[in-house]
Amino acid sequence: MSSAVELLSDIRQSSERRPFEVLKLAEPLLNTGKISRVDDVWLVYEQVFTAAIDEGQIELAKTILTILHKRFNDSQRVRRLYGMVNEAVGHPSEAKQLYQQMLDADETNVLASKRLVALLKAEGHTKEAISQLVTYLDTHANDFEAWLELCSLYLRHNLYPQAAFCVEEIILQQPANHYFHLCYAEICYTMGNLGTALKEYLRVVELSTDNVRGFYGVKLVADRILELGNLSKKEQQDAGLADAPQPATLQRLSQLATERLVHAYNSAGETSKKTAEAWLKE
């Protein structure tokens, strides 16, 4: 029993769902009644409930929910599980009503807010999901995962400035994560803000020295700035190029990025190397 309990604990602590594995580990504990002797029995019950929902085992989920309700009949956390059951059996309006009631009682309820966002998103109501997330982040501004979700929803509607703002907030919280700098660079490039895009791509390769997308971004932006030639002062400001590197520096950056890309593809074989070299010369 101890090994199964330890594995379930490891899965919880890693924030992974792995529903099939969870149910397999929990099955003997449930069948023998040994689950009642587990120290974190209520956390395990909730974990199994979520796995049962994920695997479509609704009756098992309902059985566990009954056990949890008897122990925590006034718990908002348990009410959220009722909402998840309603979602799973195809009653989204009932789930939405429940989540809204929970938020009316406590607008800072994290669990209800996140479930409501997930439900609105699943129904295709992205504008309502955006509104709910904005309200949530007014109170929980340090939740970088919520900022990332909001960024994704903004990008669905091509709202690039709003998406860029979200990533800026994420970078403030996760400054050493090259992935977020890469996201920001790509959004800035899409908006035509070449100066910031170049800085962020350079930040990517500083943090992740073998990042192919980062080096390709450096080359792409450096070459694009060189192609633009002499722009007016207004055009330079619009493209974020007021303090852009000199042409010689841009050429050197493009050359270095090309060398790194060719080196990266070199390990894949001579054919891949030649293909990369031809592609980069286009």
From TrEMBL:
It is found in: Endoplasmic reticulum membrane. It comes from the Eukaryota. Its main location: endoplasmic reticulum. InterPro entries: EMC2-like, TPR-like_helical_dom_sf, TPR_EMC2. It is a peripheral membrane protein. One of its GO terms (cellular component) is EMC complex. Keywords: Endoplasmic reticulum, Membrane, Repeat, TPR repeat. Gene3D superfamilies: Tetratricopeptide repeat domain. Residues 79-199 form the EMC2 TPR-like domain. Component of the ER membrane protein complex (EMC). Part of the endoplasmic reticulum membrane protein complex (EMC) that enables the energy-independent insertion into endoplasmic reticulum membranes of newly synthesized membrane proteins. Belongs to the EMC2 family. This is ER membrane protein complex subunit 2. The lineage of its organism: Eukaryota, Fungi, Fungi incertae sedis, Zoopagomycota, Kickxellomycotina.
